[in-house]
TrEMBL record:
Pfam families: F420H2_quin_red (PF04075). It catalyses: oxidized coenzyme F420-(gamma-L-Glu)(n) + a quinol + H(+) = reduced coenzyme F420-(gamma-L-Glu)(n) + a quinone. Gene3D superfamilies: Electron Transport, Fmn-binding Protein, Chain A. Coiled coil: none annotated. It comes from the Bacteria. Transmembrane segments: none annotated. InterPro entries: F420H2_quin_Rdtase, Split_barrel_FMN-bd. Belongs to the F420H(2)-dependent quinone reductase family. This is Nitroreductase family deazaflavin-dependent oxidoreductase. It comes from Actinomadura parmotrematis.
Length: 133
């Protein structure tokens, strides 16, 4: 997570005026449903737009395990997204093998550390496409 809970709270309180722009890139809030708890879990994530969709990366800094938010959306792909002051429902899916190279290049251009994270782990870091419903 970027700033963790504080980042989420400031973003929500200010409609993204604080928290959307972060270290030269842009951040959205992704709310998944906890696969064990059933509780909403909100995570700030770097994103890019791809047509009408939003794209995020399940990097966890190159950790060998997927981030919990990715495990949650794998169990239940219905998510809520906040971009600045706009909140909408979406369906999350992992990018296809055909989409992945193009989307990876787009995301690595936005946050070059993604390439370093991929080099640190044996798992293929998923790219997640958030499609409005």
């Amino acid at each position: 997570m970027l700033f963790g809970r504080e980042h989420v709270e400031r973003y929500q309180e200010t409609g993204g005026a604080e928290g959307h722009d972060w270290q030269g890139t842009t951040v959205l809030l992704l709310t998944t449903t906890g696969r064990r708890s059933g509780e909403p879990r909100t995570t700030p994530l770097i994103y890019q737009e791809d047509g009408d969709d939003h794209v995020v990366v399940a990097s966890k800094g190159g950790d060998p395990k997927h981030p919990l938010w990715y495990e949650n959306l794998s169990a239940d792909p219905k998510v809520r997204v906040q971009v600045r002051d706009e909140v909408f429902d979406a369906r999350a899916r992992t990018a296809t093998a055909e989409e992945r190279p193009r989307l990876w290049a787009k995301m690595a251009a936005t946050w070059p550390a993604y390439d370093e994270y991929q080099a640190k782990t044996d798992r293929e870091i998923p790219i997640v496409v958030l499609e409005r419903v």
